[in-house]
Amino acid sequence: MTSSTPQPNLFNGGEEPKDSQPVPETSSRAEKRQPAKPVASNPVKTPETPTPPPAPDSTYGASSIEVLEGLEPVRMRPGMYIGGTDEKALHHLFAEVLDNAMDEAVANHAKAIWVELDADGYVSVRDDGRGIPVDPHPKYPGKSALEVIMTVLHSGGKFSGKAYATSGGLHGVGASVVNALSERLEVTAWRDGFEWQQNFARGHSLGPIEQIQPSKKRGTKMRFLPDVEIFGSTAHFKPARLYRMTKAKAYLFRGVQIFWKCATSQITDQTPPEDKFYFPNGLADYLAERIKGTEALTDIFSGRVERKDDAGAVEWAVVWSGAGFDDHDSFVQSYCNTIPTPDGGTHEAGLRAALTRSLKTYAEMTGDKRGGLITAEDVAAYAGIVISVFIRNPEFQGQTKDRLSSSDAARLVERALADPFDHWLTGSPKQAEKLLQYIIERAEERLKKRKDKEVQRASATRKLRLPGKLADCSRQDAIGTELFIVEGDSAGGSAKQGRNRNTQAILPLRGKILNVASATVDKLRQNSELSDLGLALGVQPGAKFKEEDLRYERIIIMTDADVDGAHIASLLITFFYRTMPAMVRNGNLYLALPPLYRLSHGKEVHYAKDDSHRAEILAKHFKGKKPEIGRFKGLGEMMPAQLKETTMDPKTRTLARVTLPHEEEDIEDLVETLMGRKPELRYRYIQDHAEFAAEDLDV
Ligand SMILES: Nc1ncnc2c1ncn2[C@@H]1O[C@H](COP(=O)(O)OP(=O)(O)OP(=O)(O)O)[C@@H](O)[C@H]1O
Ligand SMILES: [Mg+2]
Ligand SMILES: [Mg+2]
């Protein structure tokens, strides 16, 4: 079962693209439009000859601006009127003619329509309506209204709403477009006591309208053969497709009977040669047939409401299925004035709003508080919906009438459905309860899914987002960059000021981090300082650690040169060893070696990292002098410039690379030593190794 929505709209008369093949444009037409020009003066360009700037084209002037006359634009650009020249477009010609007959039926002037596909490929549509007017048109002397309708774009009787109240026809182009794109088209009108006839070829009349014979009949018949120059020589009407389109129309207007007839020589499949479509229950009939064989959760909720005051009507049929419809969870088919609207619109929105409101009210009434969760999406997500509206002056989006945008359609539908649906629910409480519970469950599922997604998204962005306290370096590339993990916020502040912004990042750690040697993995994760650390490094701990994820080339632990600082450093080393030993083994981890003493005399300044170093400096640089000796209590005490010079600047600092003992068994010992009870021991260990490791340092 896949999710709902766009599916081939079976009801719009076989508009599925699957059986439509592109029809090649005939060569004769293409050649006529663009005669091959002699090319002698225009030699073939070679790569060596640079293209000269185009010469001003003296032939492009007012005379190049064409105004297409009559129906010429239709033949020139059929795509604008019928959406292309493929099989779908070809069948659209039939839809236009059938729409006109339907409009006559919906206006209550026609009771029956006859559709026929003949052996010679002509299709005809006849209705018993008023008949196309044949009297001379006041604006076009010498031409009948019929001829104007067939040969002039934007001519029609559906603009004012006087002759037709709620028609699918809107633009006054349909019949003339069909005429323009037909090799031959014959119109017969029965009215005013006579049968009238006029014939056309490619949009041009083959003679004036003729009065054929007296007749008591009423109505119109159009018989036509699509033009091979437009659609290609292999294009032809498909009986099955015409059959589907015809039947679909019959469901949409219960007052009409449609008779289908097809020459047996045209039929290559199961399409019946003769049939009669009449559906007194309209859309309910359609939906019943559509869901035959599928397991429905409810009965069909259907109805029809006609507006008395204003012309307009709404008809609908809705059913819910927990098992889905074929391979869809839901479907919606909507129509306005019998025109399919595959892209939906205001009528669909109005229906969903009405159903949702009633269901919520019902939930309230029965004391189910979870009704508040229901949205229109939940209601429609497992429903099969057919809705058809008839309104005056419908507004469609675009030329193709694929989406209804009239806002009054939403109100009309919502109002029309409210009471009937309330009654339907209260009329059979058992069914209503079943439906309500089903939809509430879907709503809860939807909420849970959304929550899961949010959690996923949150953790995904957390991975990308760096901890707030991190002052990152600006260089994107890891190469040449360093992350200083600094003890305490105040030292962090000095480090931020003393750093090289481009390559050095600072992450202050507050307080003592967890004693990781004994911590469980869960506890490690919970420690926010440590998880910040992982985020800053860009790597994941454990098996997911990847060297290439490391965001910095060097990770430098910078703690106070005292016992506490040594403890924190040892905790961090242990943490890195436990969670990402590869980083330690690869030599990415360093210790900064901040000085303990500052020795100065006049302008001469030296820094000593411990007592023996101090003695060394005294002997070497201050012989016979009495220098001022200051002892740093912590990194935070240093001026940013001092911190930079002594500890951070690659030109003047000393770093100790953290290395692992060569024997892997010793590692546990190392950790034990680092974490041992006596702080002095740990401190010495680090100092010793710092001494040792300081040899392969950068300078
Ligand atoms: N079967 C018919 N019976 C009576 N009048 C018709 C019939 N077919 C067409 N007409 C008249 O011809 C006019 C022009 O039809 P056409 O299909 O060109 O335009 P339309 O239906 O008004 O609008 P659209 O271009 O949207 O189809 C119609 O408005 C109607 O007055
Ligand atoms: Mg029309
Ligand atoms: Mg017209």
From TrEMBL:
Name of the gene encoding the protein in the UniProt record: parE
Alphabetical list of HAMAP family matching this protein: ParE_type1
InterPro entries: DNA_gyrase_B_C (IPR002288), HATPase_C_sf (IPR036890), HATPase_dom (IPR003594), Ribosomal_Su5_D2-typ_SF (IPR020568), Ribsml_uS5_D2-typ_fold_subgr (IPR014721), Topo_IIA (IPR001241), Topo_IIA-like_dom_sf (IPR013760), Topo_IIA_B_C (IPR013759)
Reactions performed catalytically: ATP-dependent breakage, passage and rejoining of double-stranded DNA
Gene3D superfamilies: 3.30.230.10, 3.40.50.670, Histidine kinase-like ATPase, C-terminal domain
Extent of Polar residues compositional bias: 1-10
Keyword Magnesium: yes
Descriptive protein name: DNA topoisomerase 4 subunit B
Species: Asticcacaulis biprosthecium C19
